[in-house]
Amino acid sequence: MSSKHQCMKLSDGHFIPALGFGTYKPEEVHKSKSLEAANLAIEAGFRHIDTAFAYQVEEEIGQAIKSKIAAGVVKREDIFLTSKLWCTFFRPELVRSCLEKSLKRLQLDYVDLYLMHYPVPMKPGDDDFPVDKQGKTLLDKVDFCATWEAMEKCKDAGLVKSIGVSNFNHRQLERILNKPGLKYKPVCNQVECHPYLNQSKLLDYCKSKDIVLVAYGALGTQRYKRWVDQSSPVLLNDPVLCDVAKKHKRSPALIALRYQIERGVLPLAQSFKENEIKENLQVFDFQLPAEDMKVLDGMHRNLRYVSAEFFADHPEYPFSEEY
Q1: Which of 55, 114, 205, 216 is catalytic?
Q2: 55 is catalytic
Q3: What structural domains does the chain harbor?
Q4: Where are the active-site residues found (predicted)?
């Protein structure tokens, strides 16, 4: 097995490739770019693809996978596909319908990993981001532990191999882990994580519970106008990161990704550019010594690019906690 196909073992015995390809697409980017990028990623050697119902690109991701299988580039079992349950489907009776919609869009019989996208339920309906007349998010009251039980049933039905969560703080994870009658514990928690927000306390907690921390925004996010304050600092331009990159004759992006691998975090890398997609796979070709890791740890400034303010009024808003 080549280095670019290095994997991490999940607590349920399945293996997840240690670098993932992110597929979120901002509104200003045409969907055809998602198809093109996914094709490029699979050709380049990515075998872990991370998508979600709410990204609205599952059709394109499915097409890319299907075409690469048809061309003999990969088999279905070579691809580790993650998707996510959206917040308007948190009522237990709706969970499976969201997954089935995703499977239909992806043209797949199962997904390898299915995550609760946020711990916050929203009002069910046709709108992914339901709002009232004042533009305020319409939230819902659902105990995510009941949602988790419906996720477990999807695993039992063979529609998903592994189940996990995203954007959960340690208290919320604790609630699932301590839930009476828990059948399957979350195998991972996908959160924003990069040198400006290194999540060290959450990482320690997750490691203690045998939960893999998956990092989105590992390159400091793509700075999409809808979600990110445009005046926030650009991670990949940080002089500290750039100095380490210069020392190792690598790009700042590769250093940011390698930083996560060294910590036992699984980073997701997103790009629509062929050269960047190929370059990101070089993360397994070098290592960072302890002194550089210490320097990168020192970049932490508790800066969250994606604060999901539209959930802030909900009691389960996850980012009020320290970790």
Answers
A1: 55
A2: yes
A3: 13-305 (3.20.20.100)
A4: 55 (proton donor)
